[in-house]
Amino acid sequence: MIDFILLFVLAAVASLIAGSAVVAWQALRPHRATTGWALANGFAVDPEGLGLPFDEVGSARMAVWRIRGLGDANAPSVVLLHGWGRSRIDSLRRIDPYIHRAHELFLIELPGHGTSATQTTLGANEVDLVAQWIIDTHLVRPILGGHSLGAVIAIRAAASLESRGYAVSSVIAWAPYESVGQPFAARLETQGIRIFGLVFIAEKLIRLLTGSETSTRVALAALRSPCIMIAGARDRIVPTSVVMSLQSDATRIVDVSHAELGTAQDPSAVDVADRAFSMQN
Question: Is residue 188 part of a domain?
Answer without folding.
Answer: no
